[in-house]
Automatic annotation (TrEMBL):
Gene3D superfamilies: Luciferase-like domain. One of its GO terms (cellular component) is cytosol. Keywords: Monooxygenase, Oxidoreductase. This is Alkane 1-monooxygenase. Residues 13-301 form the Luciferase-like domain. SUPFAM superfamilies: Bacterial luciferase-like. Pfam families: Bac_luciferase. It comes from the Bacteria. To bacterial alkanal monooxygenase alpha and beta chains. GO terms for molecular function: monooxygenase activity; oxidoreductase activity, acting on paired donors, with incorporation or reduction of molecular oxygen. The lineage of its organism: Bacteria, Bacillati, Actinomycetota, Actinomycetes, Micrococcales. The keyword Oxidoreductase applies.
Amino acid sequence: MPTSRIPLSVLDLVPRSQGMTAATAIEESVTLAREVDELGYRRFWMAEHHGSEAFMSSATALLLGHVAHATDRIRLGSGGVMLPNHSPLMVAEYYGTLATIHGDRFDLGLGRAPGTDPMTAAALSRSSGHLPDFASEVADLQGYLGAPRSGARVRALPGEGTEVPLWMLGSSTGGAQVAAALGLPFSFASHFAPDQLAEALAIYRDRFRADAATAQVDRPTTMAGVNVLVAPTQEEADHLFTTAQLMAIRIRSGQPAPLDPPVDSLAAVVPTELLPLAHAHQSVKMVGTPDTVVEQLESFAGSHELDELIVTTYTYDPQMRRRSYRMLADAWGMSSASPVEIAS
């Protein structure tokens, strides 16, 4: 890979298309993970969602264990675990077990959004998610995964001593504040909530504490999410991307459903008043030919001084999703012949 280009990673939500079973959606994501592993992407992260018709990614730890058996070198992780939905001890046990079985291949990305609707969040017995409580739970989780503590009455076994690397996720300035205070790497969800990207990165960099007891990196370390779709022509890329736009409209208008087939014209199938939802939700997008997308990704990464990009792609046909990642890897200059650096 050219030294001027930062690493690319993959975010997957186990999308399910119309007519597809949940089991098929899961196996398609495993197939994708196997392919991006071979292509040379740095990480394959899976994001927690509950009660979704479109995303089969509610049990991320189970899915990542399944993916680990199908891949060899790519780092795997949560992008993320919504910590207020779980006890820190249980998360430490789950991811500590994965690290015990598969070794140092896992990242633990942590968020505080519900990842679902209010009623489902209540059924998960969700905690507050308020910043002080959240920061305390992150510190507890890190403690469970760290070196054995003298006199500790509560221990994550297995998990203790695995030191699974933590990442803080955010779609607003709140996550940036926690990441900075705890000295953790920070990944911003600009693929679906781009409005506060610049402000969040500025807060994170300005307030970052390398001397925090919980610090895992010695300098501000950043990643951001991007919607990507690569195809041989701009016309085909735009056509295939209408599936992602329809998905965004469904999510924002409360009409959940599996992914729709692409359409020739959004205006022909979507009420005029809903059309802006597609663009507001996915304004950080790079859609087009390989050279076009690479140029846009480089510009985006450079303007925000990012250390890494994590890209996500939605297509009705999973083969088109895999093709997009293949074309991007080739245009980015990835090498499938040498192992990917797996530093956290």
